[in-house]
Specification:
The protein is 38% helix and 12% strand. The chain is of the alpha+beta class. The radius of gyration is 15 Å and the shape is globular.
Length: 144
């Protein structure tokens, strides 16, 4: 975690076709009263991926960047997103340097399991309990 004095806002790229992601994004939207978090749905074809990254790269791992261009990914993107909306205390353990290898390992496992979990979690606001049915919600191939 390199940033000590963030240059807000943080722009977070999220998967708008993932029910798990949308639940968290909706919570961020409700709590973003200071405007320190900007949200971009990378699943939207009108959204451009960051330079040097494909859309799939950005869907495979959480990406965010500060106004000054500093990129944060994975658990760091999670950490700074929660801090942006005033919930830094929730993710404070992600900043414990001695535990970072464990958090990074856990994040990689979550990324591998997210497609399977997303298939069974209903989309927020769905009366019919519609779950994610896009290709992103299918388990990764064994060589991924």
């Amino acid at each position: 975690m390199h940033t000590t004095t963030p240059d807000w806002p943080l722009t977070l790229f999220y998967d708008g076709e993932c029910p798990l992601c949308l639940r968290e994004i909706r919570m961020f939207q409700r709590r973003n009263d200071r405007g320190r978090l900007e949200l971009i749905d990378i699943a939207n074809s009108a959204a451009d991926p960051l330079p040097g990254l494909s859309r799939q790269d950005m869907l495979d791992c959480l990406h965010a960047h500060f106004r000054d261009g500093q990129l944060v990914t994975g658990i760091d993107a999670t950490y700074w997103s929660y801090r942006a909306v005033g919930l830094g205390w929730v993710v404070a353990p992600l900043g414990w340097h001695w535990a970072r290898p464990l958090w990074k390992w856990g994040y990689r496992q979550f990324c591998r399991l997210r497609p399977a979990i997303a298939r069974i979690v209903p989309m927020p606001g769905s009366d019919a309990g519609v779950s994610c049915e896009s290709d992103r919600c299918r388990p990764p191939k064994p060589n991924d």
